[in-house]
Amino acid sequence: MQNYSLLNLGWKAFFQQQLALSEVETYSPARVFAQHRSEYLLLGEQGEMRLPILHSMPALTVGDWVLVDAQQRLVRELERFSLFSRKAAGHKTELQLIAANVDTVFIVASLNENFNLNRLERYLALAHEAQVEPVVVLTKADLCANPDDYVQQVRRLDRLLMVEAVNGLVAQSVHILQAWCGQGQTIAVLGSSGVGKSTLINTLLGAPTQQTQATSRGENKGRHTTTSRSLHAMPTGALLLDTPGMRELQLSDCEAGVANTFAEISELASYCRFSDCQHEHEPGCAVQAALQAGELELRRLQNYRKLQREQAYNSASLAEKHATEQRFGRLIKSIQAAQRKEKQGY
């Protein structure tokens, strides 16, 4: 990326309003363009900078804006207007940041045997929680005999949801996505491993920035190729944020996102006789009445329950870990204070 003007890097009035006059005169804004194991790559009007990751620093992610001093040292992080996060994969009880300050998210799914509405609803919940506009991009349309059927399935999830079926290898097919890719806009690309994200990104960028691998014939699955998060400049002036494919996406602190993704169930729940209705066997349950009347799909209700339980459990686990760490920190401080008093007594 050659033009390092703040506007081209995605700078907005939202960030400018956070700066004190003294900061404007003294420090420089920079954006996190890539995240590696031991350092962040920053871009600002002065060019590229490398920021070593230290334990004393706040947790940053690709898309974040920070202030740096003349020696290119971190001064502070600026407030985000959007943030994607998830519970870390596996048994780790910690929150993993995915991307920050995103305007639109392309949720990528492939038109083959891996197409899964439950998985799409999971990504939509993440997008709604971050308050970022989602666009569902269905790839490998050239390999599908009836792409319109899949498009209609997704549109039934939300009549206002934008859905596009494309051939990620053909620029003319992908051109329809440029409506969301104006100058200074930040577009995140999320999706499971092997759905064609890297191919789509290469076509959008007009250059082979990401490695790609062919779909496995035996399993009809693509292979995961992207291994780190990074921002890339598009010919339209937008910034494209790629993330590694997610084999596991655990929701946490996502109650509002789940409620928005299943808006019709949330609305029905407001008519239930009991405010704490679990929508199972309670009398006067409007959700169960809609299910029996054929107005609500059982699959959708089951996934709603699953995601609600998952985000509640993970949120509680993370809160408990945080409380435990705080108690341990207070214990350490009390021990240190006692030791200082003991030394002063001699």
Describe the protein in words.
The protein has 3 domains: 13-77, Nucleic acid-binding proteins (OB fold (Dihydrolipoamide Acetyltransferase, E2P)); 83-242, Rossmann fold (3-Layer(aba) Sandwich); 255-322, Ribonucleotide Reductase Protein R1, domain 1 (Orthogonal Bundle). The protein contains 10 helices and 13 strands. It has helices spanning 13-16, 21-26, 117-130, 147-155, 171-174, 197-205, 255-261, 263-269, 286-292, 298-345; strands at residues 28-35, 39-44, 47-52, 65-68, 74-77, 83-87, 95-100, 104-110, 133-139, 162-165, 186-191, 229-233, 239-242. Strands 1, 2, 3, 4, 5, 8, 9, 10, 11, 12 and 13 form an 11-stranded mixed sheet that branches. A two-stranded antiparallel ribbon has the order 6-7. The model is unreliable at 214-219 and 222-227 (pLDDT under 50).
Q: Write down the CATH topology of the largest domain.
A: Rossmann fold
Quote the distance from N terminus to C terminus: 63 Å
Quaternary structure type: single chain
Order of helices and strands: HHEEEEEEEEHEHEHEHEEHHHH
* Name given to the CATH homologous superfamily of the largest domain: P-loop containing nucleotide triphosphate hydrolases
Strand content is: 15-25%
Low-confidence stretches: 214-219, 222-227
Please summarize the sheet with the most strands. Answer: 11 strands, mixed
Would you state the CATH class of the largest domain?
Answer: Alpha Beta
CATH architectural designation of the largest domain: 3-Layer(aba) Sandwich
Q: How many separate helices?
A: 10
> What is the CA-based Rg, rounded?
23 Å
Mean of the pLDDT scores?
86
Q: What characteristic shape results from the CA principal axes?
A: globular
What is the count of structural domains? 3
Number of strands: 13
Residues in helices, as a percent range: 25-40%
Class from helix and strand fractions: alpha/beta
